[in-house]
Amino acid sequence: MPSIRAPASKKTATLLVAVKCRPLTEAERRRNRNIIQVIDDKNVVVLDPDLSKDYLDRIQNRTKEKRYCFDHVFGHACTNSDVYKGVRSTIAGVIQGLNATVFAYGSTGSGKTYTMVGTQNDPGLMVLSLNTIFELIKNDRSSDNFEVSCSYLEVYNEVIYDLLEKSSGHLELREDPEHGIVVAGLRSIKVQSADRILELLNLGNSRRKTESTEANATSSRSHAVLEINVKRKQKNQNRNQILRGKLALVDLAGSERASETNSGGQKLRDGANINRSLLALANCINALGKHQKKGLAYVPYRNSKLTRILKDGLSGNSQTVMIATISPADDQYHHTVNTLKYADRAKEIKTHVHKNIGIIDLHVADYQKMIDNLQVEVCRLRKELAEKESHVNVQSVEKNSDGEISWLNTLSQETSENVQERINLQKALFELEETNLRNRTELQHLDDAIIKDKDDAIALVLKSRRQLILDNIRDNEETGTVYRKVLESPLLVCFHIFVAPMNEY
Ligand SMILES: Nc1ncnc2c1ncn2[C@@H]1O[C@H](COP(=O)(O)OP(=O)(O)OP(=O)(O)O)[C@@H](O)[C@H]1O
């Protein structure tokens, strides 16, 4: 039986969008002009690559010069550590049970792999994030227990492979009502240090499909997703609580035009598949951007494996960072403007962040054990009171204190009722959480049906039912919170609570 998720408050977050412009390469310096001007840490201008345009063209708006504003802009002199400073706070939330996604988006050769993986001298965001996670765990002053595990996959030609397996077979995506999209059979390795993950990262990178293309000597042919899971066990007097934070670090494959990379055969096929998933990603960014501006819009997550994997990062429970990587070379003008156009759209995307709180080991047997314990407690208290009553009876002959006996009788009855109510409440809470698990499963089926069904009338009915289920989940979670609060109160505090009916359809 899965662990039961406790309700947690949701916070709306906006996608953090940063732009990183790489320096001109040695070869580019000989033949290209730099058309990127970083104005300050938030503003960037892409100059018109056509030098023949003059002042008059500019004031008459005939120039292709474009100006953009982002959360952060990093010029060619900035290192990966500089970029990392802008996203570090997002990473830090992972050890508090929050999810985070960082992905680099840009055309081939623009510096995605350099930014995410980096080099020995300039380690990338994957390495820097891992160091942060282990540093925070090491310096944590609570008595909590941490467990870190990692998985590393690639999506190559719309097939998922495990980069931590020597010869991985094809892996499938599965939709889990509790954990969202999961890759069935993906290996997750427990790790004790950042160094161990780096070893695994290097191993995975050596297995990754790369090719030399005309645009980039070591162009990534696959999308790689490194996922770090941090499980934090907290103990309080009533139960074990578990916080699960997830960090997804994504290095996308290079998008390119076939004509530009001069490729054919397998390379051309790879390129078509890479472009298909990147196009799907761009379409999702587009739809989500519109969604925020104009209300509900269909988001085509199902069009590629990549977008299904990134679904949480794009609209679900995740604090997400997009690093748009651009080349400063004048012959990359169209790619640069295209990347910045999507980055600009992505600024509108909102996600809903909440802590992943679970209660561990609360299985049917555990509930039964708790009920049994409470029943033992009732018997003990009854016995104790009976003994006190008989003692008082002897005294009452002497003191003739009828009032005292009746007070004890009332106390005995109240205590026994109190414990019985607590047992009922525990049972009700258990059923409430079971019901919400069933509600969530139905929600998942409804989501699938809404996407598949093209008929507007049916989709409308499905959507209204979906809303009903969502309302019920929320109501049940609110009721569950009240029950939990009562159960956490000291045993002998008198309480009378109405056990409300749970919502299930
Ligand atoms: N910030 C940087 N400083 C120095 N060199 C860089 C920087 N960013 C990228 N480069 C260099 O630019 C080239 C292309 O970078 P990289 O391989 O990271 O691009 P990419 O976007 O991942 O390409 P693809 O999509 O084809 O895989 C490499 O030679 C890399 O070393």
Characterise this structure.
The protein is of the alpha+beta class and 505 residues long. It has two domains: 4-50 and 62-359, Kinesin motor domain (Kinesin, 3-Layer(aba) Sandwich), CATH 3.40.850.10; 364-488. It is 47% helix and 21% strand. The chain contains 14 helices and 20 strands. The protein has helices at residues 26-31, 55-59, 80-92, 112-116, 125-139, 194-207, 258-261, 265-294, 305-309, 311-315, 333-346, 364-399, 402-452, 456-488; strands spanning 4-5, 11-14, 16-21, 36-38, 43-46, 66-69, 72-74, 99-105, 145-156, 159-162, 172-176, 180-184, 189-191, 210-211, 219-220, 223-235, 240-251, 319-326, 350-353, 357-359. The strands form five sheets. Strands 1, 3, 7, 8, 9, 10, 13, 16, 17, 18 and 20 form an eleven-stranded mixed β-sheet that branches. Strands 4-5-6 form a three-stranded antiparallel β-sheet, with helices on one face. β9 (145-156) and β10 form a beta hairpin. α12 (364-399) runs antiparallel to α13. The longest helix has 51 residues, at 402-452. The radius of gyration is 29 Å and the shape is elongated. It binds adenosine-5'-triphosphate (ATP). Adenosine-5'-triphosphate binds next to α4 and β15. Residues 14-349 form the Kinesin motor domain. Keywords: ATP-binding, Coiled coil, Microtubule, Motor protein, Nucleotide-binding. GO terms for molecular function: ATP binding; microtubule binding; microtubule motor activity.
